[in-house]
């Protein structure tokens, strides 16, 4: 009897509680869970990156070493810059195949402009403008003439590579007093024993600024949110009244301009030497980095930081291959392909388990 | 009038115009460009046009394979490397057998090359259809790996071999046409019959339109997807065979280098949409012919080979703009609005709104 009475008395409050509080908690948890789902591939990439680095440290040593780390950073600064632009493009469900060729054109054209006596800083600005122009043409073709991004940027890739070859098929050197060389100055941050210094160059600073700027753009700016909306569902974005046309053109302008910036950083790093064969296959590196970082090629989701993790995975792979030294050069691309494959498959397995 | 209009709306119509224009430019440069003469020593026909047909054979092969992959909303970036694999296997086999006149050696070389390409194509297909990776990434991996495999097969050397029957593939003639071109067209016709006289073509298109719906309709996507990638790899290997038989040397880094881009271009010029769901075999073949004509024209005009991409870019831009709805409605508005006032406007608007499928991979 007491049981039934207490039940009758206590049921309403209990019924009240879970209905008001628990669903909210569950909601919050499930929302958190849902949000973390898009992070799973990126986290998987991070875990695998550390796995690779630890393996390299055990097998070859001197990997967690300030000198090694700083040379990786300096060497991969242009790739990082390209990966930021590529992430923005791919999140919008597009692709930019032109970046490697644009780097070649911008560096050759920029160095030639410096050589005819134009102010160095102005020519660097022009290098970015050249990149942005290729992006603008691609963006207009894609948005206003309904050309598929793959084809439009493929055309820009051919155009930029061809124009670079028309300008010069032999390497051109920037003048020795050109300010572009200042971008490769070594700044010692930590002065370690022997060569174990942590040094960075202004190029690395530029890359870091681009990453931070890209993250702000994607998550704090209206246009960045529109990029995600376009990638998620273009027709929904259009029905919401988002400025698709403007955003889409800007996406490709940004990607092109960043390719111009990468050209500056790279040209500075190699001592002002520009060639028409620079940047062959860099677009594939950037795309691979973006994919490893967990961004889907179908667009709508992904993070810039993930792509940076992707760049470091590629860097770690190259590091392992060079550290090993015994790998037959004929097997190099097979190994690169195999590691990329293992990576993508592992990521897929991890993501699937997380989702179920 | 209506026939003209349909022609204007056939995507590859402009590719034919392009080929004619390029040939015209060459004829202006040298009035004897189109001339075909008989070589007195070999008794075979020679001429620039026959040259174009010969170099177009490998492009036709890879473009044909690419057409079906793209129709399933995929992409195959590995075809260029697959050409190198096919060429490498053939050259290694022929130089190992060392039988300069044996027809059997030729068949052994072709068979082994096809076998390896089919195996690699199956890997592509399994990665896409079973593992569920994006086609762009799986075939990008295969592009790297296959190039490496070609290097391993030949120990990184540019291998050459002598085998007269195999050399005849590209250098011989059937009824005055290059043998490789005749074979390529025969393969195109064979596959076109297979695709269009059976339901296979429709099934491929339905997977490209909506994989889930086609599955519900009773089409099993896995075998078809794997088959499409296997076909693409096998045709690429055939293209590689044609390409190496021309010079009887395989260059491990040069053979098929960047040819995947040529193939994709040929397919798109021919009117197959990268969004999948439809394909045009004739279109891809015409597209491949245009690419071959363009390559030869740039060489003929004495422009440095490194600058070729710029001219390719101009042709692509011109063609895709001509195919775009906006330019068409601007250029042909006056002529069409006379007989059908609102007819063309409505489908144009209907076509331009659902552009959400403009995804690459």
Largest sheet of chain B: 2 strands, antiparallel
- The count of helical stretches of chain B stands at 16
Q: Which H/E pattern describes the elements of chain A?
A: HHHHHHHEEEHHHHEHHH
| Poorly predicted regions of chain A | 1-20
Number of strands of chain B: 4
CATH architecture of chain B: Orthogonal Bundle
How many discrete structural domains of chain B?
Answer: 1
Q: CATH topology of chain B, anyone?
A: ABC transporter involved in vitamin B12 uptake, BtuC
Distance between the termini of chain A: 45 Å
Provide the low-confidence segments of chain B as ranges: 336-361
Backbone shape of chain B: globular
Number of helices of chain A: 14
Strand order of the largest sheet of chain A: 1-4
Helical residues, percent of chain A: over 70%
Biggest β-sheet of chain A: count, sense, barrel?
A: 2 strands, antiparallel
Order the strands across the largest sheet of chain B as they lie in space: 1-2
Oligomer: heterodimer
């Amino acid at each position: 009897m007491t049981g039934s009475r207490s039940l009758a008395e206590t049921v309403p409050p209990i019924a009240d509680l879970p209905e008001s509080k628990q669903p909210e908690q569950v909601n919050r948890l499930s929302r958190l869970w849902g949000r973390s789902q898009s992070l799973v591939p990126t986290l998987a990439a991070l875990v695998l990156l550390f796995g690779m680095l630890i393996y390299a440290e055990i097998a070859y040593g001197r990997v967690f070493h300030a000198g090694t780390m700083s040379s990786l950073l300096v060497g991969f600064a242009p790739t990082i810059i390209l990966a930021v632009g590529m992430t923005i493009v791919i999140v919008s469900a597009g692709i930019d195949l032109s970046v490697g060729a644009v780097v070649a054109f911008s560096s050759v054209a920029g160095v030639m402009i410096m050589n005819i006596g134009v102010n160095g800083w102005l020519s660097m600005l022009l290098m970015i403008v050249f990149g942005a122009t290729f992006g603008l043409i691609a963006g207009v073709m894609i948005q206003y003439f309904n050309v598929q991004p793959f084809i439009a940027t493929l055309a820009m890739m051919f155009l930029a590579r061809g124009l670079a070859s028309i300008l010069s098929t032999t390497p051109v050197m920037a003048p020795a007093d050109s300010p572009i060389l200042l971008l490769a100055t070594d700044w010692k941050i930590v002065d370690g024993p022997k060569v174990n210094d942590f040094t960075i160059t202004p190029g690395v600073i530029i890359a870091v600024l681009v990453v931070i700027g890209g993250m702000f753009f994607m998550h704090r700016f209206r246009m960045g949110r529109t990029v995600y909306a376009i990638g998620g569902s273009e027709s929904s974005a259009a029905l919401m009244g988002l400025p698709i046309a403007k955003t889409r053109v800007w996406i490709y302008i940004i990607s092109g301009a960043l390719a111009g910036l990468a050209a500056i950083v790279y040209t500075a790093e190699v001592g002002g030497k520009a060639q028409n064969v620079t940047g062959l296959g860099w677009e594939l590196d950037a795309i691979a980095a973006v994919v490893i970082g967990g961004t889907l090629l179908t667009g709508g989701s992904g993070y810039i930081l993930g792509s940076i993790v992707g760049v470091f995975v590629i860097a770690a792979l190259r590091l392992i291959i060079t550290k090993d030294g015994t790998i037959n050069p004929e097997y190099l691309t097979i190994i690169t392909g195999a590691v990329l494959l293992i990576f993508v498959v592992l990521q897929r397995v991890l993501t699937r388990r997380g989702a179920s | 009038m209506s026939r003209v209009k349909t022609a204007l709306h056939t995507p590859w119509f402009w590719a034919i115009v392009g080929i004619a224009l390029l040939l015209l430019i060459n004829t202006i440069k040298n009035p004897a460009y189109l001339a075909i003469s008989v070589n007195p020593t070999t008794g075979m026909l020679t001429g620039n046009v026959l040259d174009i047909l010969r170099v177009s054979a490998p492009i036709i092969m890879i473009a044909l394979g690419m057409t079906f992959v793209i129709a399933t909303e995929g992409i195959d970036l590995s075809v260029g490397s697959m050409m190198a694999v096919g060429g490498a296997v053939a050259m290694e086999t022929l130089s190992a057998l060392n039988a300069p006149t044996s027809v059997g050696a030729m068949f052994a070389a072709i068979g082994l090359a096809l076998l390896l390409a089919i195996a690699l194509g199956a890997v592509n297909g399994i990665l896409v259809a079973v593992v569920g990776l994006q086609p762009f990434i799986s075939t990008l991996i295969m592009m790297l790996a296959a190039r490496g495999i070609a290097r391993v097969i030949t120990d990184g050397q540019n291998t050459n071999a002598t085998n007269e029957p195999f050399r005849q593939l590209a250098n011989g003639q059937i009824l005055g046409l290059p043998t490789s071109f005749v074979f390529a067209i025969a393969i195109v016709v064979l596959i076109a019959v297979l695709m269009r006289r059976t339901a296979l073509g429709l099934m491929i298109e339905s997977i490209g339109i909506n994989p889930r719906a086609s599955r519900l309709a009773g089409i099993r996507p896995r075998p078809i997807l794997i088959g499409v990638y296997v076909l693409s790899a096998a045709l690429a290997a055939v293209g590689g065979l044609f390409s190496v038989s021309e010079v009887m040397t395989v260059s491990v880094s040069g053979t098929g280098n960047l040819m995947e881009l040529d193939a994709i271009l040929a397919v798109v010029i021919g009117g197959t949409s990268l969004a999948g769901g439809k394909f045009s075999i004739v279109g891809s073949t015409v597209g491949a012919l245009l690419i071959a004509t363009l390559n030869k024209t740039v060489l003929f005009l004495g422009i440095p080979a490194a600058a070729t991409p710029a001219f390719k870019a101009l042709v692509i831009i011109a063609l895709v703009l001509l195919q775009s709805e906006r330019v068409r409605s601007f250029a042909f508005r006056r002529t069409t609005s006379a007989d059908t006032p609102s007819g063309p406007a409505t489908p144009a608007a209907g076509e331009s709104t659902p552009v959400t499928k403009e995804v690459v991979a």
